[in-house]
Amino acid sequence: MTQNDSEATKLNNEILTGSKKIIKKQGHWNETEHKTYLNFLQENNNHTKGQRLFKKMSQVVGTRTPSQCRSHHQKFNPQKTRCQSETGILRSKQYARKYFAQQRTLEHDSD
């Protein structure tokens, strides 16, 4: 029988360790998980890129997989774009957004 994506994900999130079954959560992170995540970042603020940061984070949080931790980290710690922060040059998408925002304000002001 073939599985759809959600069934396969649920099966992948259930990890067997010995006789215990640890179920990894899905969906939004609750406050406890997020606070644990923030504490982990403070304790490991000098990590290098080669270290297995998200695997350690997953073990500390306990209810999330390493890929969920990586996704959460990308969402709450966005990297500043090098182009804009160092050189002041906007990327093409950023330029387009800025242009269309200006056009909207000009249209709104003329009404």
Protein described:
The protein is mainly alpha-helical and 111 residues long. The protein folds into 2 domains: 5-78, Homeodomain-like (Arc Repressor Mutant, subunit A, Orthogonal Bundle), CATH 1.10.10; 84-111. Helices cover 60% and strands 7% of the residues. It is built from 6 helices and 2 strands, in the order H-E-E-H-H-H-H-H. The chain has helices at residues 5-13, 31-43, 53-61, 66-76, 82-87, 92-110, and strands at residues 14-17, 20-23. A two-stranded antiparallel sheet has the order 1-2. Helix 3 (53-61) packs across helix 4. It starts with a helix and ends with a helix.
Summarize this structure as a short list of keywords or feature phrases.
single chain; 111 residues; mainly alpha; Arc Repressor Mutant, subunit A; 2 domains; two-stranded antiparallel ribbon; 6 helices; Myb-like domain-containing protein; SANT/Myb
